[in-house]
Request: fold
Amino acid sequence: MNFNRKFVAASALVALFTGMSFALSLNASSATVPFKHPTAIALDHNGHLWVSNQDYFGVTEIEASTGQVMRVINAKADGFIDPYGISVSGQHVWVVSGGVEYGNGTSHVGTVTELNAMTGALIRTVDVKKHGVTGLSAVSADDQHVWVAADGGGRVVELSNVTGRVVHVYRGRMNFVQPDGVASNGRDVWVVGPETGNSVVERSAVTGRKLRTFTPTYLERSPGQINKTPVYLSPNCVAVDAHYVWTGNGGGLSQKHLGGSVTQINAATNKIVRSVGSAADHFRGTIQSIYSDGTHVWVVNGSVSYRGHRRGDTITELNATNGSLVRVIQLHDGIYADPVGVVSNGVNVWVTDSGGGIYGIGRVIELSAATGAVERRIAG
Reply:
């Protein structure tokens, strides 16, 4: 059984599928569906969307404007084993494979796959297991570097975006701490939790040097105590836009509210601006992912139970300047929903739903970024 990982891929978008006719390289056993528990997503410069399928052992490429599936690549020879993270930079698509075992936190998988964004062809497969890194959970690529978070021991791998070679392996101070999120803007890179599990570490994307550690907290007076004490918010995913770094946290801002929270960090001054989180925000401690398009911040919340044993999930939209609540979008439509990844181009928002669709193996939901209205649901 795998860890339920959270992730965010910089410059990523969720994929859409609107038809069943597509030209692709599928095994006969999977020739009827384009998704199988879709998780991470990414957008390339050609206007194509790439989706990693956790149980498909591969990725799906889709034309963003039409939703037409271009191809499905599920060759194990490409190193696809339980793919979790995906990111695009230029004409390079980077996919990392998971495979962490729940019981002891070990893994036998440490594969980074590079694809050509124009053709889908395999460029190379990088084995980072020989560097002692397994259980890969997230990836973020910029023009020069590829940053891979590994939750099999609190490590972060830096690869060259040009050669694919491992440049450096950065190790946290504690084993079995799970760095589930990583985001780079080309100048700096932010990694969730490689040191204490309660922090975000910023490194220079140019030199790899550690710059600082952020530990989002809030002050609260516990029952029976006189003074307020800091409470750790425990970030579990991260996103970056032109001005701010945003973390999705497992901890809420009050003992009365058991949900999660979001912390806003100024990327220029490196100061924590604010943390937001209330019952109205619908944040859950199981925040799955977070993404900022510069105008809106989109947060995928954990599952919500309703009367009649229905299950649905929500997307919270925040103002990307002041962190204020814009709206909460309810995705539940009577079908089991399990949203995981979310991204936006400022016009549309796409959400991967790992447990929805006709067959319960995944779909993609498109929203309007202006109104939050569901524009279409595409079932696998």
User: Anything to note?
Assistant: The CA atoms of residues 184 and 265 lie 14 Å apart. The chain is about 0% helix and 45% strand. The radius of gyration is 19 Å. Residues 1-31, 306-311 have pLDDT under 50 and may be disordered.
